Every structure is written in structure tokens, then in C-alpha cells.
Amino acid sequence: MPSHPNACFRLRAVCVFARFALFVALLVPLAAAAAAADLRALAPEAARLQLAALRAEVAHHDTLYHQKAAPEISDYDYDQLKLRLRALEAAQPEIAKATPAVPEVGDDRSGLFQTYRHRERMMSLDKTYSEADLRAFHARLAKLLGRDDLTYTVEPKFDGFAVSVTYERGKLVRAVTRGNGVEGDDITANALLLRGLPRTLRESAEDGTANAIPETMELRGEIFVSFTEFERINAEREAAGEIKFANPRNLATGTIRQRDAAEVGRRNLEIVFYGIGACVPATAQPSTQRGLHESIRRWGLPGIARTWTARGVGELWAAMQELARARGDFAFPTDGAVAKLDAVALQREVGATEHAPRWAMAYKFAPARAETQVRAIAVQVGRTGVLTPVAEFAPVELAGSTVARASLHNREEVARRDIRVGDFVYVEKAGEIIPAVVGVNVARRPAGAQAFAFPEACPVCRTAVVSRAGEVAVRCPNAACPAQLRRRLEHFASREAVAIDGLGPAMVEALVEKGWVKEAPDLYRLRRADLLTLGKDVGKSTDRLLAAIEASKRAELWRFIYGLGIPQVGAVAAKEAARRYGSLAALAAAGSGEAVAASAASDSAGRAIAAYFLEVRNRATIASLIAAGVRPTAPMAVATGSRLAGKVFVLTGALPSLSRAQAAEKIVAAGGKVATSVSRNTHYVIAGADPGAKLEQARTFGVSILDEAALLRMLQDEEP
Length: 720
Ligand code: IVH
Description:
The chain is an alpha+beta fold. It folds into five domains: 5-98, no CATH class; 115-364, DNA ligase/mRNA capping enzyme (D-amino Acid Aminotransferase, Chain A, domain 1, 2-Layer Sandwich), CATH 3.30.470; 369-444, CATH 2.40.50.140; 482-627, 5' to 3' exonuclease, C-terminal subdomain (DNA polymerase, domain 1, Orthogonal Bundle); 648-715, Rossmann fold (3-Layer(aba) Sandwich), CATH 3.40.50. It is built from 27 helices and 20 strands. It is globular and about 90 Å long. 2-(butylsulfanyl)adenosine is lined by residues 123-125, 127, 155, 157-158, 162, 222, 274-275, 338, 357, 360, 362.
């Protein structure tokens, strides 16, 4: 944060200016030549200002994209911003040189992992959105190589997280993120949880022929998540009241850098290989890109299912368009096509620039974008009282579906972007999935359109809104607010919680409106006679609903804990709490001074639960549930008595029968914790075949080293 008020003002001015520059870049995709001439004609002071503004903006978005996995603008806008900066730098080289540059490759090192130096630099790709640039790419190569009939391999550009996996004598030894290209985060422990990533390469192909395996090689690929898995995880997060991932890439990036290996194991990330870095001996490297794809498959590694071969630029362009059509059927996210010169000898001949090879080019697909008019900005009240503004616009067709609304996230966001009712806005599908408003066409703003006044009072119960220090969220503080109550009840009755069939939003609304239900325990006191007054012919459905409510009294304990909607307590934390406390009564007692003190040292979910039950009202809810006859099914008999409870495990090497994810799951289910690296706090290292450096670290720290059999004995609650 700039400390000097003037600096602060300057930074803000720079940002406003950059946003304007972005806006211009978006709305006026000028013919490249004309734009370059304009940029060259800029007065020095204006050029300096623009450059500083664009660099500040690019640096800001670089951090959001590469390190936080939480971009604020669409990938397309981000790319355009960078392209505009490059154009300005090219047009004003003197001024560009005189001011510090933004590093070319974004840096993904998170500071959470040990870093590891790549044997060979991990490069980025040159990219473009235009056919002309693609043709210019070919023309450059044709000139350099003195021939026009060049052969290319065309591949999908996976939208995930770049990784370099090293195999030594056919054994996986390390997985490292790109980082700054020179060194990246060592994410080996997490990568080992990827189901499709073999630890050992196949020495002979399916047809029995021997595979030549280089002694050492760095294979380059992408960790990603399929659309189906993305949707599954987001649905789960929504149910838990957690923030959803904006797109599959953010999910993949966020997951692979988790320190909690068990969490990584629960998400089905995938990996695909498309390149090679260092290869020893160099002669063992396949001589073409096509050959590399073939070898990848023969080694038993996940490769690209479909690639294209093209000769000359005509075929190259046709292949790219075919890929663009085919991608609608891909189960995984892609954001473009990559053209690679096929022959490695030619690749070596043309070499690389500072940051990218000259022999490859990514052609990115511009996202589907539409312009539409905002009819209203509705403000929704969530389960925890958070107010979310939602733009409702004239329905538009976007990438195969009709969209009519998009979240505007929070008060600050609406103000920052100054979106007004009546405005024409650009709508895009972020990651081709979730619609998002990406810009306002200010030129079409109707006269008299007013800046959106965020409500000062809850739109449902009219209580004055509040916002907590340091939080952008604006909340309705009234726990009795009917909107919050409805959402809480929907959550309590949801399939993931106590699963009351027939208690959907419409029924919940009716029950709240009638005043019959003011908190979850009231559901267990509903009277058949009352319900029958809700309409004609409701006899059967009433009986079904009452039966479902009755049955839910025996739901597992964790489902009640989860169903209460305690902030920061999702399904996983609820399961842990169920094991720890064992009963509803013990749970409510977690708010007593002693228990709070005891849990203060433990995890954040434990603290959240203790804080929640400090409130008398919340303890009373538990008492009423018990009084209403709720008797949750007891949790499995492990809990605090288990040998594993509270113990920290690190897994290393290939276990004989369990996959790493399975082992992690079992440990967590028995109350243990799984960490990705060995430290003084580690209790046990479970080592399998080819355990790697962790074993050494375990010895250094004097940590007990066990094998799978010992782990299984511990899980049976026996001596290891
Ligand atoms: S080749 C030396 N091929 O795109 C060339 N990259 O924007 C290195 N990517 O860092 C990359 N699919 O993470 C290559 N088929 C593909 C790819 C691909 C996705 C990613 C990769 C790279 C980024 C560049």
C-alpha cells in the first residue's frame, strides 16, 4: 500500500487511466498498423503515462492470474491488455527502455513450497487472436528455413496449470510448476495424487516391443480439471455456502497448490503431456513432435487424444479451425490451438526468443461475447445475510445457451465498474461456463442513467445493512430476516445436509410466510392439519413430507452439523467435528469456556465451531433439536480414541495396495491429518517404493517411518 497520500492518488489515477486504456483496447480493436502509427505519434509525456498505467495494470492482473488464481477480468481482456502494452513498447522503444518492464512470463511461485530449478527453462508461448498473425508466424519460419512446405502438429491448448515432471530411469522423481520459468514450486507430493500420473514408465509397448526410455527427461504438460468435475465441486461448494470457482483453471490452480494433500486427493485433477524439456541423452529425444506424442502414449503417460498434422499455412489454418469446431465436444477446457513445427531439427534451427520458442504459436479463441441491456440490478440475500447484486439483462444467446443474469459479486464491484440500470454491457462466459459482465459500453449509456445506489437496508426485512472491517461483503445483520431464514432452511433440508425430500424453495417459502417455521427445529413440530391448509389435494404430498422430516431425525451427526450452516464449516469440517464431538449435546458444549480454550490451539474449523456455540441462541437451537426428538446416527467409532487422532502423516513413494488418495482418505477418516512435506510436526512418514527425499527428511527430523502394513494396523487401532 502506498503510504504517501499523493502516491495513493497517483496509483489510483494510474489505475483509472489504465482502465480507460483497457476500455479503448476493448472497444476499438484498431487495425494494427493504424494503431501502431497512433502509438508512435503519442507525445512523450502521454506515452510515459500510458506505459506506466498499462504496466501497473498488467502487473496487477499478473499477480491475480498467476499467484492468486483469482482474476478480475476475463482471459481475453487480460491478453488484450498485454498485447496493447507490447504494442506501445514496440512503438515507443526509448520510453519503454527508460522505465522498468513487467517481466514477460508471469511468476506462479507461491512461497508455500520448496522451489526447484528446471534443468531446461520452461518457456511461454507466443499467442495471438488473429489469422493474420498466424500467417505471419508461418511466413517468418518459411523465411528463416528457406522453404514454405513446413509440417506442423496442431494440438489443443489446455486451459490449466503448466507442470514439468521429471522421470529418471523411468521413475517419477519430481513435479515442478513453471514458476518464473527458471525455477518453480516443487509440487511432487500433490502431483502424486493425480490418478492418471504413472510413477513408472512402461518399458515395453502393448505390442510387446521394447520402449526406449531416456535416462532423464523433463516432460512438460498441463494439470487440468474436466468440466464435469468442475461442476461437481462447484455444486458441493455452493451447498456448503463456499465461494465457487470462476472457471476450471482456477480450480486446478487452487487445488494443486493446496498444502492439504487430502483435499487434493478429493478433487479429480487430470494431467496431459505435450512437450519435453531436458532429455539425457539428447539422442533419445523423439525427432518430431508427432513422435513425441507417440512415445508419451507408449510410455503409458496421458497424452493428447487428438492432434492434427498440417503441411503449409493453408492446411495449418484449416486444422486450427477444425480444432475450434471439435473443441465443443472436448470434456476438458481449452482456450486455443497450438501450432508446433513438427521436426525437432527445424525447431532447433529457429530457436527461441527471450521468453518463447520461435517454432510454436498459440492461436487463442476469442470468447463468446454479446452486448445486452441491463434491465435491473437485483440484490439477493444469502444464508449468512450477505447481499449479492445480480444484473438482470435482456436475454442473449451465448455459446449455445440463453443468459439473462450474472452476478456482480458485491457492492464494491458494482461501484468500481459503475454498472447502471439501462447500461449496455458486454457479457461473456467466463471459462465458457459462467456468464459474467466484462465491460460497459459507456458510449450507449442512456441519458439520465443513475449510478447504482446499493441498498442501505436489507431489501427483504429492511434492517440497516452492515459491513465488517476489512470485508467487502455487505450484510443484513438480522438473523431473523425471512430471506436468510429461507436460505438456512433450504440448506438444512438439502440433500447434502439432513436430506428432507419435498422441502424445496416453494415449500420453505410457504412455511416461513405462514410463520410456522422460524428455525430448523420448528420443522420437527409441523402439524399435519396446518400443512393440509396449504392447498387442495395436498394430502399425499403432506404425508410424504412429514415422513421425510421424521426420517431426517436419524440423519448422521455430521449432516446436522453441516446443515446448521456454521460459517467456514463445510462437509469435510463437519465430518471431522462429528468424530471429535460424537453427539449434538457435546457439540453445543463446544461453546463452553473450557472447550473453547482447548480448541483454540487446534484448526480453524474447530475455532469456528467454538465461536458459533458461544452464542446462546445457537446452543438453544441444538437444545430444541434434541427436544424435538432428533437423534443423529452415531459417528463411526473412531474419533478421539483412535491412534491416528490428531497425528500428522506424510505419504511418500508408491504403497503396495492403496493409492495415495485412498491412504490419505483413510487417515483423515480416522481423525489424522495428511501433510505434503516433512517437518518437526510430522508424526509418521508412510513410505512405499521409491520414496524420494522425504525419507531422508524423516530421518533428519527423527520422524517414525512406517510402511503400508503398519498404517493398516493403526487404522485397525492396533499397534503399528
Ligand atoms: S507448449 C515451449 N502445448 O499454454 C512451449 N503449451 O500460454 C511450451 N499449454 O505454458 C508450451 N496446452 O501451460 C504447449 N498443447 C500445448 C499446450 C500448452 C496448454 C499451456 C502451457 C504454456 C501456456 C502458454
